[in-house]
Design brief:
Elements lengths: L2 H18 L3 H15 L5 E8 L2 E7 L2 H13 L3 H8 L3 E3 L11 H7 L2 E11 L2 E11 L6 H24 L5 H26 L3 H15 L3 H21 L1
Antiparallel strand pairs: 1-2, 1-5, 3-4, 4-5
Helix pairs in contact: 1-2, 1-6, 2-6, 7-8, 7-9, 8-9
Length: 240
């Protein structure tokens, strides 16, 4: 399949997402998952959005991408943040030969990830976010992947701008607030599942996602139900 055909496919699938999703966060998660399907070298993906210097992962294909993003935010450095600052793609072919960003390479390798690609989502006044792609050992991004990721990010930026109007949400700040609230309750639910099942964050995220799919209910709603139930049980325990 040629790059041109892949570009056409990405545009068509993003258009379909925009028409079929009912909320901003569903669209963002769809873009992350679509990126993994279309970019051959990608093992996982996420989307970072920013407003007034604040950054947050608003969607991820799985828990691993979120963990890698969060580590960058905590340290204030990494390919995602460099792409945001410069407005240019940042490609790490193999972190084993990478000396930037402190112990970022070590953290990546601990998760079996060796490659990273951050592609800015460009708005009218500069980057509003970054499409983050991560590659496992043995995978990696070739020239075709790099081209396709940039085209996908360009289409995604247009789709996100359209989504802000479609979903009648007045500003990116509002979306960040909503996304932060969703991520907070999801992270709490992940912690609860980890404690119950003695499992990793990735495994806990997968548990929540399976329940979401089985119930045909949004992930944040499943997380909210779990957190609420635990809080209610704790309150009853104290009352008793």
């Amino acid at each position: 399949m040629t790059v041109d055909r892949d570009q056409d496919d990405s545009a068509a699938e993003l258009a379909a997402l925009l028409l079929s999703t009912e909320s901003f966060d569903d669209l963002l998660r769809g873009v992350a998952e679509l990126s993994v399907r279309l970019v051959a070298g990608a093992t996982t993906a996420s989307i970072t959005l920013a407003e007034r210097g604040r950054v947050i992962t608003v969607a991820a294909a799985d828990g691993l991408a979120s963990q890698i993003d969060e580590y960058q935010y905590e340290r204030g450095s990494g390919p995602c943040l460099d792409a945001m600052r410069t407005g240019s793609p940042v490609h790490v072919a193999d972190v084993r030969g990478e000396g930037r960003w402190g112990d970022f390479a070590t953290r990546m390798l601990s998760h079996g990830i060796t490659g990273a690609l951050g592609v800015p989502l460009m708005g009218r006044d500069g980057p509003v976010g970054v499409l983050n792609l991560y590659a496992a050992a043995g995978a990696g991004f070739d020239e075709r992947d790099l081209q396709l990721a940039q085209v996908l990010a360009a289409h995604a930026a247009v789709a996100l701008t359209a989504a802000l109007r479609t979903y009648d949400q007045v500003s990116l700040t509002d979306n960040l607030r909503i996304a932060l609230s969703s991520r907070s309750v999801i992270d709490q639910a992940i912690g609860i599942v980890m404690g119950r099942e003695r499992c990793s964050a990735d495994e806990a995220f997968d548990v929540l996602r399976r329940v979401s799919q089985q119930r045909n209910t949004k992930l944040r709603h499943v997380a909210t139900e779990l957190v609420t139930a635990i809080a209610r049980a704790a309150g009853e325990g104290r009352g008793g």
